[in-house]
Design a protein that fits this description.
7-stranded mixed sheet, 37% strand, 19% helix, Nucleoside Triphosphate Pyrophosphohydrolase
């Protein structure tokens, strides 16, 4: 299932684990200290976060270091093992992200305890940090595919005790109702993500759901918050988590229409003029949606403005989402046919009728679009 996992880079040593004999009583506390370290000729200040928690028959001390000179950070959390599980994939994947960056944001990692303290941890530190996004990762022990959770239910109903022995049955978390993720899943292009994760509105009724609920409840700055459930064996879970973080951080999509004009079994390609941005590259005619427009309205207007042609707009080829310079474009591609007019070049300097995707040098994802249209040509030519 899925793609072969790439080699995960060994993270730098910025997290230290120390094991002590088990105390007679469970002790949970954290403290902060400021230290200075030197690297080559540069001295930087770091804050050391020390968390002590009980795991099995040991007390584990976790140290995490955060650079004070880093302004943009995202938080990723995993969970300790629980129940009968000897490992937790969420802990493994979260730890593999230590020292990594996504869209120039430093990834901060925290491994949560599987109990009430763990579920509250992020909500309690929320106002002490300026995270730009928070991604929780958890184990879905019976799942076959990863799930992106969009709803935290206001209910706890444990099938097994948590790691503190707590066993809650049919109890609201707050009694204020369900809460929903603050990500815009429509901008994620999920069908092109690793293993095509399922979109879920049920995060369960255990610690994963409780954690997501408490984080959303504290999300006063309305930053992107999401929960990713992973099956026990997930190919390229590292890559999938990085894709989720990338989509959480990228700007909102701009809707753009692109028209595949069909005539005599071929489709029209147009080359950007020297005076235009991306001069010399080939594309499908179209442009940004104006307020209140849909793909049909946009393409009728844009093709009239660019080519002086009146067109009718027909079936959808597909939707592509991609980074384009400093924006993210959601490209709506539709089949078009010429109703009237004589073609004129306004923002293009050449046009060419094509029957395969390899005849010109395409801009951005337009070659993939041309491939999709080429596969449709026999049917389109028959219907013309």
């Amino acid at each position: 299932m899925g793609r072969k996992a790439p080699q995960i880079p060994t993270p730098p040593v910025i997290s230290v684990q120390r094991v002590l004999p088990k105390a007679t009583e469970s002790t949970y506390f954290s403290e902060e200290t400021t230290i200075s370290i030197s690297s080559s000729s540069t001295s930087i200040n770091q804050t050391e976060y020390v968390t002590i928690c009980q795991s099995d028959d040991k007390i584990i001390i976790w140290r995490q270091f955060s650079h004070e000179n880093v302004n943009t950070q995202v938080l990723v959390t995993g969970f300790q093992k629980f129940g009968n599980h000897n490992e937790n994939i969420s802990e493994q994947i979260a730890n593999s992200l230590i020292g990594q960056k996504v869209r120039d944001h430093e990834i901060i990692v925290n491994i949560l305890s599987v109990d009430e303290a763990g579920s509250r941890y992020v909500s309690e530190i929320y106002n002490q940090h300026d995270f730009k996004a928070i991604l929780h990762i958890g184990l879905a022990e019976n799942a076959l595919l990863p799930r992106i959770e969009l709803r935290a239910k206001d209910i706890l109903n444990f099938s097994i005790p948590d790691n503190s022995g707590r066993l809650i049955k049919n109890t609201p978390i707050t009694g204020q109702g369900d809460l929903f993720s603050t990500v815009n899943i429509e901008d994620w292009d999920v069908k092109n993500m690793i293993d095509q994760p399922e979109i879920s509105n049920d995060a369960g009724e255990y610690i994963c759901n409780e954690t997501l609920y408490r984080t959303l409840e504290s999300n006063s700055k309305n930053i992107p918050v999401c929960f990713l459930h992973l099956p026990p064996k997930q190919d390229d879970a590292y890559g999938l988590v990085m894709q989720c973080l990338d989509r959480m951080l990228r700007p909102p999509c701009i809707d753009v229409g692109a028209g595949a004009i069909i005539s005599n079994g071929k489709f029209l390609a147009a080359r950007r003029a020297p005076s235009e941005k991306h001069a010399g590259w080939w594309e499908f005619p179209g442009g940004k949606f104006e307020p209140g427009e849909d793909a049909v309205d946009c393409l009728v207007r844009e093709i009239s403005e660019e080519l002086d042609l009146e067109v009718t707009v027909h079936e959808e080829v597909g939707t592509w989402i991609f980074d384009h310079d400093d924006v993210v474009v959601r490209l709506h591609v539709r089949i078009c046919r010429i109703a009237s007019g004589v073609m004129k070049m306004r923002v293009h300097d050449r046009f060419q009728w094509c029957d395969n995707p390899n005849e010109v040098d395409w801009l951005g994802p337009d070659k993939d679009i041309a491939s999709a249209i080429s596969a449709m040509l026999p049917h389109l030519h028959q219907d013309s």
